[in-house]
Every structure is written in structure tokens, then in C-alpha cells.
Amino acid sequence: MKDRIRGSVKRGLSGKLTPPWIPLLLCLAVNCAAHAQWAKVETGIVYCFTNDTVYIYAGHAGGVYFPGDSSVARNVIRSSDNGASWENVSSGLTSRSMYSINIFSLASKGGKLFAGTDNGIFSSTDQGGSWTQLDVAPWKGEVHSIFVDGPNILAGFDAGDSNCSDTVGGVFRSLDDGKTWLAANSGLRSNCMDKRIYAFARIGSTLFAGAWGGGVFTSVDSGANWAPHGNKNPTEGWQVTSLAVIDSTLFMGGWAPSCFRSPDEGLTWIRCEKGITDTTTYDSYALQGFAVSDHTLFTGTIMHGIYRSSNMGDEWIPENSNLEYEPLSLDIFSLSVIDGYAFVGSGGGVYRIPVSTIASVKQNGSSPPGEISLGQNYPNPFNPTTTIRYGLSARSRVNLTVFNTLGQQVATLVNGEMEAGYHSVRFDGSKLASGVYFYRLSAGTYVETRKLLILK
Q1: pLDDT reading at 83 higher than 90
Q2: What is the pTM of this model?
């Protein structure tokens, strides 16, 4: 499986580097100064990102390190200045071979970090200062996704072509901050297609898992059991690499097909890859990841860089300014939006750009919605903050409030005139007890209520 992901990185390693003065001349020729550009802030092949309250973390691909090699593997790096500079924090990340370890996924939960690798799962309680391998047996495979879901932690394994069974590969779950892990594969077949889990997402009470070749599965019991929608999985055979959520719409990115969205939690799917296609063959490009900033969706492709959509995937435009001049930088493996910056992990290193310089540009079709709508808060469950999004078809007086199960109002989030368009508001539940709450949107004659859950 590693060869599939890294195959495009191997392409061109023997090619010549572009002299540094050529991009400058080309940039001057097309007035690049007038356009926002990605800035390279770290080298190497980067697969993943996460962050906590102090640092941003990135995970590197492995390399060859012989016994006695004086060089230090840069498996995990961190930045305390929004990605401007990075330091190595890889002590304890051990490999099973002459290659240093591959870091395929990273996640943060409270004061603990988790790293998914080709040698199992590692954790750190000192912000990456040291790492300890966790006991996840029989895990076998590469850990391509770690998803923190309230008190649960889910890990998605790729069991490969010869290690598929009920207890090997697929989904593993921990309910005690990673101390113990159990296979959670009920509903996933014992074949390799279902047991290659690359992505997780949640909408309301439903969890989603994306499998390479198995499509999208759902769980309504926090990942203990999985099932497709209906008697037949409508996504069976899809090679899923990434999932994302905007309001209550689920997006799927992969290789065959490339991009779909579902407005009804996976029951039906709509293709959404206009613009992410070859203009000669009209084949869609392979997608490797998503990142969301408000209602702007970013995706990364293999060999063709980054695309952006501001209209829920109806159309995409490329955002590759300055990337095309760097070898392998158009091979995108991960994207993340952190503290106002968009970060890209590519075959050429880490790039960043202020989100405000690109996400503010609207596309055709990004006009106000045709009707008023209230989205599901995300994340949900949450602690302590979550985001609630809503759309207005015309300027309206809006009242958005939060109630407890007794009908008592506990928060007023919006109370006044709002312009037409999409809006989002953050709800801070840090002063409230764990439990079920309701949020209600009133706009003109429109009234809708949804449920949210605080888990502390």
C-alpha cells in the first residue's frame, strides 16, 4: 500500500531541479506579486498534520537510515510560530527495518498526541518530546487515520493484501486514551477492500469510515458496529482516501471515482468534481485529502496540486501559485487549516498561505442559497466549542438560541439583522454540563431546531 501512496513521489526523483532564478523571472513576467502565493516552510515528504494549543505538528515519510548513521530522522516536526519554523521531535519513534518510520496520521486529544505509522501507533504526553509505542494487537498494517471522537479514539488500518481477517486491519477503537485497543470491525467484511480504512468523519449521531476499495460505511454506536446504508452499499468498490463535512453535507474524495458529496448522510451521492479533470481526457484527478475553512473546501491531488471550491463542490479552481516551480510539490498528501493558515503536505515539503488571501475570492455559483437552512453543528459531540452554520436566501432578522432539555434558554448566539448568504457562529459550552442541548434558528417564518451534545 505504501507504494501506491508514494508512487508519485518516486516519479521524477532523478529529474533536474529548476534553477531558482527561473521561477523568479516567470513570476515577474506574469505579475505574481499581485497574487497570493504558497510559501515553502519545510522540506521533505509530509503526510499529515495536527495541532494542540501550543504547536502545529507534521508527520514525515521515512527514509533509509543505516546503523551508525549520524543523521537524525525527522519523523515528526513541530512549530510554535504558525509554521514559520520547525523543530524535530522524533525521539522514540522506532522502525522495524532499515527505513525510518513513516508517519501517516497524527491526532491530538487533551494533553496527548497520537501518531499512526507503518509500525503501529505511538503516543506522546510531552508535546512530541518523547514517544512510546502502544499495544495494539494484532494490528498488522499501516495506520492511515486517527480520529478523536469525544471519549473515543478510532484508528484506521490498512491491512494490506494478505493480512485481512476479523481482528486484523480495519478499525480499532480505544475508550481509555489509547491505553487499550480493540478491533471494531463488526459489519466490515474480512476482505482487504473493507479492511483498508483511510478516513473518518461524523455528522450528528452518525460516524463514517472510508475504505480503500470498500467505499463508505456508517456507525450509530460510536464505531462499535459498521454497516452500509440499505441492503447494498452504494459506494462499494470506491477507493476512498478522505472525508470532510460542511454543515450536514458529507464529501468523499478518492481515486475511483474522484469526488462525491452526500446531502443525506450517505444515502445518495452526487458527483462534484467539475474542474478537477484533465482537459484532454476528461478523467478526474485522484484526491488525497480535504480541508475546510468555513464554507470553503480545499482538496489535494496527485500530480496536479490544490483545488478550491466555495460552492459546496459545484465547481473547483486550482490554487497552485508558486507550487508548480518546486519538484514534487504538486503531489499533495494532506491539507489542514490551522489558526488562519492553510497548510499543505506534499512530496516537496510543507507550504502555507493565509486562508484570507484565497478563501475570500468567490466563484461563479457562490451566490446566496435559494432557501433558508440550518446546518448540523460540527464537531458533534464537542468539548468545549463547536460551530453552527446557517444560510439565508435574503436579508433577514435572525434569532439563534440554545436550550437545555427543560426548555430553558442557555445562550443567545445571534439576535439581529443578517445579510443574505452563508454564516457561521461558534458556540462555547465550557460553562455548561455534559448532556444534550438544542439550538433553534428563527428567520422570518422559518423555524428549525437541531440537537447538539456536549461531552466532557
Answers
A1: yes
A2: 0.74
